[in-house]
């Protein structure tokens, strides 16, 4: 009986070692990785296509960008995928804002394992040149003197611009009128044509019009000044202490993905994001790289859900 017991013991020990190797993520990845994201040209798609080729070189495996219609579809696919590190989600703040406005087939906290925040960008508070305000304080004073006369545009209910404007209204005690459009391009045209007088726009969308003085920039919505818009103060430093809204894009895996795989992905993605060439490319499209730990990203999602849900509730925002 000695020999069979010895064989069994050796086999069991070998199995334990093999299991440890798998659990540690040392053999990951050994096949292509699918990145699920938004439509071509969306923020998540652009970030994915900047990162994927460089990760592919590190991993020695293909990273396939899988574009799906924006909305809940990309998140639903990843939430239901096998938690083995071979299906990832590159997505924006819509991941956790959408469930606050409507029923979704996923829970932004329960159904995902955050890997890292990838990039962020503030909105820019801009006004039409006809608006007699050169600062946030002057805009607030004007809005209080003319309640309901200033319009602000967004590309839809629950967008980052909508949240930014409603938070501003609540904190400043002013009444702007919301005018939703079908697309961000139409919002900019409406601002240039003075159909709306106020906008909380992505930096990249309004930077050319700021340079040509077709719009006037008053402040950025981030907590700290942004290198994307040097010289512009923050809304918080201009009279609304504590005000902050940013657009973020992050990378997540299905819930219960092994921690070793999450950490491996986090380290490799952070290495890519910190490359000077990548930072420059992100900067060129109006994004600042912002790698984080999985724990930091998870905490950010939870805090944003708490903060934004209050804005939505107080403003009575409802999905169309």
Task: Explain what you see.
It is globular and about 65 Å long. Helix content is 44%, strand content 19%. It has helices spanning 2-24, 43-59, 73-79, 94-101, 136-145, 160-172, 184-192, 203-211, 259-273, 276-284, 294-315; strands at 33-37, 63-67, 87-92, 112-127, 151-154, 177-180, 198-202, 216-220, 246-254, 288-289. It is an alpha/beta fold and 320 residues long. It starts with a helix and ends in a 5-residue tail after the last helix.
Question: Which descriptors would you attach to this protein?
Answer:
D-Maltodextrin-Binding Protein, domain 2; 10 strands; 11 helices; alpha/beta; 2 domains; 320 residues; globular; ten-stranded mixed sheet
Number of domains: 2
Shape: globular
Briefly note the structural class of the backbone. Answer: alpha/beta
Fraction of residues in helices? 40-55%
Query: What is the N-to-C order of secondary-structure elements (H for helix, E for strand)?
Result: HEHEHEHEHEHEHEHEEHHEH
Number of strands: 10
The proportion of strand residues reads: 15-25%
Q: What is CATH's topology name of the largest domain?
A: D-Maltodextrin-Binding Protein, domain 2
Mean pLDDT over all positions? 90
């Amino acid at each position: 009986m000695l020999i069979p017991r010895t064989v069994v013991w050796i086999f069991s020990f070998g199995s334990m070692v093999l299991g440890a190797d798998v659990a540690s993520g040392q053999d990951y990845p050994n096949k292509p990785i699918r990145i699920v994201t938004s439509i071509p040209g969306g923020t998540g798609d652009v970030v994915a296509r900047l990162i994927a080729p460089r990760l592919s070189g590190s991993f020695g495996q293909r990273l396939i960008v899988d574009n799906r219609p924006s909305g809940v579809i990309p998140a639903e696919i990843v939430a239901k995928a096998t938690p083995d590190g071979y299906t990832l989600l590159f997505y924006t703040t819509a991941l956790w804002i959408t469930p606050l406005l409507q029923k979704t087939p996923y829970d932004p906290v329960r159904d995902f394992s955050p890997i890292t925040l990838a990039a962020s960008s503030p909105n820019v508070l801009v006004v039409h040149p006809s608006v007699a305000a050169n600062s946030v304080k002057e805009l607030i004073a004007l809005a209080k003197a003319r309640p309901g006369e200033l319009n602000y545009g967004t590309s839809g209910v629950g967008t980052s611009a909508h949240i930014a404007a409603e938070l501003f209204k609540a904190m400043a005690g002013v009444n702007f009128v919301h005018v939703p459009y079908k697309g961000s391009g139409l919002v900019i045209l409406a601002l240039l044509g003075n159909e709306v007088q106020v906008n909380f726009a992505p930096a990249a969308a309004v930077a050319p019009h700021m340079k040509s003085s077709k719009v006037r920039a008053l402040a950025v919505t981030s907590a700290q000044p942004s290198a994307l818009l040097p010289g512009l103060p923050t809304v918080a430093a201009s009279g609304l202490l504590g005000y902050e809204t940013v657009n973020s894009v992050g990378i997540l895996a299905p819930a219960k993905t092994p921690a070793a795989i999450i950490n491996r992905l986090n380290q490799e993605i952070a290495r890519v994001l910190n490359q000077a060439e990548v930072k420059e490319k992100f900067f060129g499209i109006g994004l600042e790289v912002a790698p984080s730990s999985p724990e930091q990203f998870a905490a950010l999602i939870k805090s944003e859900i708490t903060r934004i849900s209050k804005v939505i509730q107080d403003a009575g925002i409802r999905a169309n």
